[in-house]
């Protein structure tokens, strides 16, 4: 699920903390317990453990909120602290308690509840907002928003370069730019929620603050898109997004108004229908390519605020969302936070970057507000309000953590899916395909480890795809030479440890191999082939053959013989263009991310449903 919630980051962190060393986790389908009087432990079943987790999260956040209320802290602070208190930083510090209260098998259910919570949370934020506030944005809001955005974008980068040399942890150094980006973002939905909690959303000050955050937010989004060269959205993607928003604003909103007029005495029917619409909006928006929270938020904006429908929705859903669903979201965040592994030098550096970023945004808003003739107290308040952060920033941080996941965990291999446009079988938009290809190329160029691209040609759609029916699972490694082929051979040798895997290694060599066998690279190829054959000499599930070819056409003939005999074909991405074995093949390379040979395997001319794994060996780049 690409919801931004259930990702390897939290799962890996918590599994590592509690000492879970298994390579896989069996997810039980047991829902409810027979009771302790029958000898069943309730903590071994989904429903009891979920109820316990919701109760713990809600109770902890409620108590934290009561303690912080005299200090005037918003609910968001209590929610974040409550989640941290339940994680390894406090309650789950004891690993026995952590394994009992938060078993790894429960993470999927936690994710479902967390996703529902964040969807309805942003839906309610949208309900509380007046959609016509955009039409009321005045000169003051433009000046304050633009100035604050410029200050928060430029000044923090100077602080980053100031502390850059003092950062000794390369992983941490790579994460600082993502942290700085969160300081440049104006999350006006969170600011709207904050103003709503203070009961000043519809006041004059609230209008100025919210309008300024909208202006700054839009400007920061455009800046981030420009900075990341995000030109892969394409006309089609823009049309999809525009159509989605127009449908909600000009079809769903009139329907909601009609429901209000027709069902004034049947509010339950209207609310139930809109709850269903929230789920549909999240699904449709997610299918288009939005984050799963954007659809519900736009739907909420389309709902008329205030009575009868808007007020009824907030009244009936706010308690459930704030005290049942959202605590699970913050619980999942807290389970990945362990304050005891933090280093003081990193804490100080992060604190410095955050302080400078917050002060820059505050200073820009404060000076602009004074210039717009606001009182110094209102100017001070606007600067502080624009620095409010919340759940949206946490989702952004989680997305950035996923980008750095491979670097943090010393990953050996990243496997990416390959998306090929076939009009007869796929409805994937051209912009989405271009975006996927661009992402794959960027990962290939910048990954801190080896990268493989997996081409799925229909094997998993076969009714006989169950692993038990593959006896054995047949794998072939096509070896032409070079670092990428050596890496593919290494991974092929590794998977032969599985008792149901049969491996065939085909080495393609030029016809006049004796004259071609020169150079250090060829020596490395020979060494790894010899090591492979010596290590697998007693393994009857491994075979090695050599095929001599005159040129690229001979290599093509060898490839055609592999069409129907294997479930997985492994090959390197790059090959020596001067080698006779690839002569003339690179003229027809359509997908550069697959390389010359990988592109042939992925083409329609290769009639096989076997999976293709194109491997690129990591090359350390010294800057």
From TrEMBL:
GO terms for cellular component: endomembrane system; membrane. It is found in: Membrane. Keywords: Ion transport, Membrane, Potassium, Potassium transport, Transmembrane, Transmembrane helix, Transport. It comes from the Eukaryota. GO terms for molecular function: antiporter activity. Residues 406-461 form the Cation/H(+) antiporter central domain. It is a multi-pass membrane protein. GO terms for biological process: potassium ion transport; proton transmembrane transport; regulation of pH. Residues 63-403 form the Cation/H+ exchanger transmembrane domain. Signal peptide: none annotated. The chain crosses the membrane at residues 45-68, 75-94, 106-129, 141-164, 176-196, 208-226, 238-260, 272-299, 319-341, 348-370. Its main location: membrane. Residues 475-618 form the Cation/H(+) antiporter C-terminal domain. Belongs to the monovalent cation:proton antiporter 2 (CPA2) transporter (TC 2.A.37) family. CHX (TC 2.A.37.4) subfamily. PANTHER family: CATION/H + ANTIPORTER, CATION_H+ EXCHANGER DOMAIN-CONTAINING PROTEIN. This is Cation/H+ exchanger domain-containing protein.
